[in-house]
Amino acid sequence: MKTIRIANGQGFWGDSLEAPVQLVERGPIDYLTLDYLAEITMSIMQKQKSRDPRTGYAVDFVGAVARILPACVERNIRIIANAGGVNPQACSAAVADVVARLGLSGRVRIGVVAGDDISGSLDDLMARGVELKNMETGEPLASVRDRVQSANVYFGAAPVAEALRQGAQIVITGRCTDTGLALAPMIYQFGWSLEDWDRLAAGTIAGHIIECGAQTTGGNCQVNWQSIPNLWDIGYPIVEAAEDGAFVVTKHTGTGGRVDIPGVKEQLMYEMGDPINYITPDCVADFTSIHLEDDGKDRVRVSQVRGRAATDMYKVSISYLAGYKAVGMLIYSWPDAFEKAKAADRVLRQRLDALGLKFDEILTQFVGVNSLHAGLAAAPGPEQPEVVLRVGVRGEDRKAIERFTKELAPLALNGPPTVSGLGGGRPKVEEIVAYWPALMPKSAVEPTVEVFTA
């Protein structure tokens, strides 16, 4: 039976720069996927593009391509990445420059999947009756329209598979589903129908298992984490996919980390809502149908996956401005570190109140006591040798937030004793970018696919 090896070398924008190189150099693969995007990433990229129209994409991807492209061309490894962000055309141009610098002009075809950025079409869509209601609150987008920063449709695997069919050796997308990056080469290589729901669901689950990179090969793993070997050299995940939809999760031989059933199960639960109805643009996957079995050292076989027909809707990721925030920290030392930190918080709040400053929220955390498990350590046991007082404020009044940033540092001299550091310096005022999830009919938007020779 025909099989292909699909590896994922990025779980987010900021993941290991060495992972793509490792996957290309330390064993055979057919496809390398690189997943850079999260909801907040799109708004960051949109801000970058508004300042400079040549930006708005994951620049790390261009550097990765420069390091691995000669080997990928020689070994016929295809690269698929959603690194395009809100400017896939600019990203493809930067990659084309790399192709030329490497002396590979005329030998590399680049595919660009776009059309997901609907930020310029929102008014027209709403005028046509597409309300883009918030999926959680039911509010129409009109309530925050004037504050919208970005709006992107989650396309699936189909346009990526089409780019591969047209001969693309590098496929760059905008907002594509994480799972679609891995599903696309299966559709292309095996000739799967776009209505073969069981196989599409299997490919979707394969993509879900490897989408977070080393999180499925032992990284960020809760199960017997102390025994995971050589985390410093952790291997990134590979799916050996078969034409019938079954696949094996593994990693390159000789790399650190671990692939086992408990670890794969842990990743399967990541971002899981309704396990029976895991909805993507490509299909509805039933995670309760999955069968896992040990297939040898660092190998887990996945089979018997079931799926159902895709819906007629796309999910839309919208970001909008929701005021301002600032967060600052002071470090208090022994003795009575916790008591000093609590006293400093009281003093700070009293001073802010005396200044007449109003905020939507003030949040205090005592790092080392209860910042991760609030309320569970209200009466700590042995005295902490040090406690970090972390205070954050948010609100619509930027001037009030700015004044807060000037009231924390003075506590070092006019508050409780033994402040040993102003963590991170004076707090900075930042815009709050809020997330607005919505749905829209698939008939209202169409992906575009362009493939050219660089």
Please give the structural blueprint.
Blueprint: E1 3-8, H1 19-25, E2 31-34, H2 39-51, H3 59-75, E3 78-81, H4 88-101, E4 109-114, H5 122-127, E5 148-153, H6 158-165, E6 170-173, H7 178-190, H8 197-210, E7 238-242, E8 247-250, H9 261-268, E9 278-279, E10 284-286, E11 291-294, E12 300-303, E13 306-308, E14 313-333, H10 337-354, E15 361-367, E16 386-395, H11 398-405, H12 411-414, E17 419-423, E18 430-441, E19 448-453
Parallel strand pairs: 1-2, 2-3, 3-6, 4-6
Antiparallel strand pairs: 1-7, 4-19, 5-14, 7-8, 8-12, 9-10, 10-13, 11-12, 14-16, 14-17, 14-18, 15-16
Question: Would you give an account of this structure?
Answer:
The protein is an alpha+beta fold. The protein folds into two domains: 3-116 and 154-311, no CATH class; 319-435, Alpha-Beta Plaits (2-Layer Sandwich). The protein has helices at 19-25, 39-51, 59-75, 88-101, 122-127, 158-165, 178-190, 197-210, 261-268, 337-354, 398-405, 411-414; strands at 3-8, 31-34, 78-81, 109-114, 148-153, 170-173, 238-242, 247-250, 278-279, 284-286, 291-294, 300-303, 306-308, 313-333, 361-367, 386-395, 419-423, 430-441, 448-453. The strands form three sheets. A ten-stranded mixed beta sheet has the order 11-12-8-7-1-2-3-6-4-19, sandwiched between helices. Strands 5, 14, 15, 16, 17 and 18 form a six-stranded antiparallel beta sheet that branches. Helix 6 packs across helix 7 (178-190) and helix 7 crosses helix 8 (197-210). It is globular, with a radius of gyration of 25 Å.
